[in-house]
Structure formats: structure tokens, C-alpha cells
Amino acid sequence: MASRYIYHPFIKGTMPQTKPIVSIENVVASATVNQTVNLNLITQIFPDVEYHPDQFPGLVFRLRSPKTATLIFSSGKMVCTGAKSEKMAIQAVKNVVQKLKKGGIPLENEPQIEIQNIVASASLGGKIHLELAARVLPRSMYEPEQFPGLIHRMLDPKTVILLFASGKLVCTGAKKESEVYRAVGNLHTLLEEKNLMIYEG
């Protein structure tokens, strides 16, 4: 289940007409154990891993809990995808390293883990006038012939938001969950202030 969070921004002392619902879809974490890793040995000990060096240099180590996929490279670098929270991504990498050690893979160091990207979706609860938004919102691009969404680049927090007329959006580029909620809250506030939200009923 994706983690959900209801954001309550205040606009000029009044509550907005809707409360955005944010859902974290994917957290990407990178890690390193600062040593080389024998990928062929891992395939011998863990037959369920995916490793096709003629197609891709990384090995795929999947976990059922938390449900994630971690790419492992011979350099000792790793990339974990599929987590639904920062905590889950960090735990997944630690679990993989622990399993490798228990399986007999000689790893001397604990993984150094860093969150690289958080992808989230959100619903603003109302429709959006995209053509007008494209003219009003700074750092925005809208070319409906090529893509149905408006692309908005936010400076603080540094994120890219794909905004759709339905009021749905996708936020990428955040490195902390708090940045996702702040980005969605900032955009929602701006849309309300510029009268770009369309409410039915």
C-alpha cells in the first residue's frame, strides 16, 4: 500500500476548497558497500536472482518484504526501487546486504544509503484550467499536441510536477517525503490564489 497523507495548506487565513491526497509511489535509493562484489557467486547462492551480464551489468535481487528490486553491481554500488517510503527503501537495502552476508558473500562494510528520487501522485480534488495555468505559472510548459499534461518546474523544493486537467498530478525529483508534501502544498496554494482550480457543484 502506498503511504497517504492529507495536506492542509492555509490561504490568506482561510481553508482551500479541497484537501490534496498525496500517495508515494516509488522511492529510489542508491547505496554502496565500498568494495567489489562477486556477482557470479551471488547467483550460485541465490538462484532466484536475475543476472544476464551480456544484456546488463547489474544483478537484480528482489525482496518480497519490503517488496523491492535492488540492482547490485560488481563495484559494490546498488540501486533500490519499488519502496513506498524512505524508511522502506533504507530497510530494503539493509535487508539485501544482510541476506548476502548470511549467504556467505564476503561483505565487510555496512551500506552507505542515499535517497535519490521520490515519485508521488496526488489528487487536488478539483479540475484545472491548464491553458490558463501555462500562462500564469512560472517555469511551466504545456504542449497538448505532444503531451496532455502541464510540466511545472518548482525551485523550492526542487521538483518537477506533471499537472493534468483532471486535478491529478505526478511529482518527481524530491529526495525527502516532506519535500513532496511541501511541493504539492505550494502548487495547490498557487493554483487557488490564481483562481486556476475549477470546482464542480
Overview of the molecule:
The chain is of the alpha+beta class. It has helices at residues 39-45, 86-102, 130-136, 177-193; strands at 4-6, 21-32, 50-51, 59-63, 68-72, 77-83, 112-123, 127-128, 140-141, 150-154, 159-163, 168-174, 197-198. It folds into two domains: 28-115, TATA-Binding Protein (2-Layer Sandwich), CATH 3.30.310.10; 124-196, TATA-Binding Protein (2-Layer Sandwich), CATH 3.30.310. The chain has four helices and 13 strands. The strands form two sheets. Strands 1, 2, 3, 4, 5, 6, 7, 9, 10, 11 and 12 form an eleven-stranded antiparallel beta sheet that branches. The chain has a two-stranded antiparallel sheet with strand order 8-13. The longest helix has 17 residues, at 86-102. The protein is elongated. The two termini are 31 Å apart. 26% of the residues are buried.
Could you list some keywords that capture this structure?
disordered N terminus; TATA-Binding Protein; 201 residues; alpha+beta; eleven-stranded antiparallel sheet; 34% strand; single chain; two-stranded antiparallel ribbon; 4 helices; 24% helix
